[in-house]
Amino acid sequence: MKNNFFLIILLSLLGINITAQDLSPSVHTILWDKFKGVKSSEQYALSSQIVANATRYSYQWANEKYALSGDKDYFLIENKNFEWAIRPSASAAYGMAVAIKTKVNSDAIGTSQDEVITCATRLIKGVASIHKSNGGNWGDHWQSTLWAALVGRAGWMLWDQMDAESKEMLCRMLVHEADRFIQADYKVKYWNGKGGDSKAEELSWDSMPLQLAIAMLPNHPHVRDWKHICSKMLVSAYSLEVDMEKSQPLIDGISPAEWLEGYNVREDGIVINHNLLHNDYMASIAHLQMSGFHVFSLAQQKVPQALDFNFRLIYETLTSKQFDAPPFKSPGGTMYIPNSPEQYYPEGTDWSVHRYASFYGLDALADVLKYDQELPKASDWVKLRGERILEFQSRHADGHMYQPGEYDTYKGVEQMVFWMMADAHLLYWLDDRKAILKQANWLK
Hints:
The protein is mainly alpha-helical. It is 50% helix and 2% strand. The protein contains 17 helices and four strands. It has helices at 2-13, 20-23, 42-65, 83-101, 106-109, 113-128, 144-157, 164-179, 200-216, 223-237, 256-259, 279-287, 292-299, 311-320, 356-368, 378-393, 413-432, and strands spanning 272-273, 276-277, 303-304, 439-440. The radius of gyration is 21 Å and the shape is globular. The relative contact order is 0.14.
């Protein structure tokens, strides 16, 4: 393996393109045997039921929606650089991979594990095969980093089930999307208090393929550059204007003032998006930026200190900041409604008031990583929201969540719920095994 990496570095220095065929044998695979089974927590049992239902639905959805290639090796995903073409499939593949590797009950899914594996690998190969790096059309899109990270995580988790061609394509895709951010002309995006769209969410998902590439290819010649820009993105995503003056604490060895060239969040922890004070984009930190707690713990590598920058402020604002009505919408109060799974949106929302999975993931992180000290207990919110999700799913035999009129504004909503619940479920799975690693300066 060392010889492979010396060859990769030499070729890179000579300006010769590094192909996925060079990289795939050098992928750092997950050592699943190191994650020993233990008695499951109450939170894990709850998320397991939800993930089983979502798996049942997405398995049926994928097999009904997509035709198979001639050799039945993969699904024929629509070959367009468009969100609706790629993101639902990538999300479903990731959810299935989590269900498989955490051994969600096959009886609850209603399909054997082998059949779910086949479905997941067909989705993974179908999506990866049409990335630009593999001759397809998607990639270099403002959101393609998210799609690449989701399908990449699915493939990495199911690495032993993937064929050689799929592995090569996944590596090519991942390196392509990660390398976009180490080019000389790349500039980190900031809101700086102007306009109606913070760049917090975009920076967070742009960090995801970097996180995964570092975990999968820890000896790649670009790792140092990937880590540096990834830390900068993570600090920048949920940064405040005041952070631009801070010399302490050092984050991955560098002060906030040195990392930052702007900011993306108001001083009170509010994220502005779609011209609204937007709860949903505050919750985005959980499923985008914080994916590193999954991937680096699975890879047994250093978790960067930048990963949770300002997380506690965001969570405290959601749970505790008061909004008076008027000027805000009636009835006023905190965004998190006490003793309820519901959200209060001070200026309304353009998505749905039933985005329970988004906040479930945020609560799971606050619960597992103990960000909720001196705040309302995150585990209570987890229970409330989890029970509401199960209530919604129980209305449908196939396990899907929403009825018409409840969340019509996003086409891939069921697969998005699957991805987000899989995130929370995997976090509890790791926590039950005491496998979530502590943060450290990864640039040392």
